[in-house]
Design a protein that fits this description.
- This protein is mostly helical.
- Among the domains are: about 40-80, no CATH class; about 95-130, no CATH class.
- It is built from 4 helices and no strands.
- The chain is extended and about 65 Å long.
């Protein structure tokens, strides 16, 4: 007995669903039928960035005007995605604070007086609640 390939099973089910939809006429009279596809040329982007770029652009997270050649690395996308840039900054600060806590360093919240033992502060409790 040969083991079942889960991807082959998924492909089989998908193919059957597509065949059923074709038989029921669900693919007839779709918008754009008979017209050529308009494909965006992403050859100016490195291959590893194309999916991230497409997702951010389609979800309206990228600014409209990006100069040609401005995107050479994945990190360059953040320069044109303000919301994601802020979120990444917050994540970096959180990772730094957690690393300091693991090392046993005292952490001083930006709005607090002198740092106390971080493990027994209300600040630490709030931080752990948000995690």
């Amino acid at each position: 007995m040969t083991p079942l390939d889960p991807l082959a099973a998924i492909a089989f089910v998908a193919e059957k669903k597509i065949e059923e939809a074709i038989a029921e006429g669900k693919f007839e009279n779709l918008p754009g039928t008979g017209k050529p596809l308009v494909l965006e040329d992403l050859s100016h982007l490195p291959a590893e960035m194309r999916m991230a770029y497409t997702i951010l652009r389609n979800s309206s997270h990228l600014e409209d005007k990006i100069p040609p050649g401005a995107l050479a690395r994945t990190d360059d996308l953040l320069a044109y995605a303000p919301e994601e840039r802020r979120a990444c900054g917050k994540m970096r600060r959180l990772k730094l604070m957690l690393a300091r806590l693991r090392k046993g360093e005292k952490i001083k919240p930006s709005n607090a007086a002198p740092a106390a033992d971080a493990s027994d502060t209300p600040y630490m409790e709030k931080l752990l609640e948000k995690l």
